[in-house]
Amino acid sequence: MKKCEKLIIKINDKEINMIINRKKIKNTYIRIDDHKQIIVNTHLKTSFDYIFELVNKHQNKILKQIENKTKNELPIGQIIYLDNIYYVTIINANDFAYKINNDTIILYTNKKNELAIEEFYRNMAIKIFSIELNKAFGYFEKNFNLIYPELVIRKMKNRYGTCYYSRNKICLNLNLIKHDLDCVNYVINHELCHFVHHDHSNNFYKLLETVVKNHKELRRRLFNL
């Protein structure tokens, strides 16, 4: 069961969209998404008073993160790939290919602009996420006798990964390819841990701590916390 609520709040006379995702989790998490909205992931029965109190407590940090995202918006012709900024050149070609030269990515494709960049992201996500999943899976196969999961890559608004343990499937956010490999590794291990512990229990976090020692730091980096 999941419930989504959308509203507008004011912080220092600045109107900000806030999305509250209610689901079966123990804690409350706040982050700022790419659209500079406040995303709150919380329990189904968390009161609005508690949420507003938490947002108010961290309002300076929230405003700073929104300011940083505004400053970090890239001009046309630049993209972020694996946490590095590149200039992009698109050359018309029937078959997709790419070259990465220092600070420039050259795309050979018959697609234009945003579609060409998304094609690049998707190709690199399939390649890199598969490699990182292979690396991470060995521990879980050896210790828990898991079956290698199906990997699905798609765009997601509010999360970087989802585990469908009943279907033996992991779904990763295409935008994860913009982050560094340590963050990619963290998300993959997080989802693999859910095949063993389906919730965010203490046992889940003990297992996550075993496979990713600095998972708290990586989560803060991933969500700009």
CATH C-level name of the largest domain: Alpha Beta
Uncertain spans: none
Main pleated sheet: 4 strands, mixed
CATH architectural grouping of the largest domain: 2-Layer Sandwich
Query: Which structural class is indicated by helix and strand composition?
Result: alpha/beta
For CATH, the homologous superfamily of the largest domain is named as Metalloproteases ("zincins"), catalytic domain
C-alpha-based Rg, rounded: 19 Å
Shape: globular
**Got a strand count?**
11
Number of helices: 6
Helix content range: 25-40%
Q: Largest beta sheet: what is the strand line-up?
A: 1-2-4-3
Q: In percent terms, what proportion of residues is strand? A: 25-35%
Question: What is the residue-mean pLDDT, rounded to a whole number?
Answer: 92
Instruction: Write down the CATH topology of the largest domain.
Output: Zincin-like
Give a short summary of the structure.
It contains six helices and eleven strands. It is α/β, with parallel strands linked by helices and 225 residues long.
Task: List the keywords.
single chain; 225 residues; alpha/beta; Zincin-like; 4-stranded mixed β-sheet; 6 helices; 11 strands
Describe this protein's structure.
This protein is of the alpha/beta class and 225 residues long. It has three domains: 3-71, no CATH class; 78-118, no CATH class; 125-222, Zincin-like. Helices cover 40% and strands 30% of the residues. The protein is built from six helices and eleven strands. Strands 1-2-4-3 form a four-stranded mixed β-sheet, covered by helices on one side. A hairpin with a 2-residue loop joins strand 1 and strand 2 (14-23). Helix 3 (113-144) packs across helix 4 and helix 4 crosses helix 5. The longest helix has 32 residues, at 113-144. It is globular and about 55 Å long. The relative contact order is 0.10. The mean pLDDT is 92.
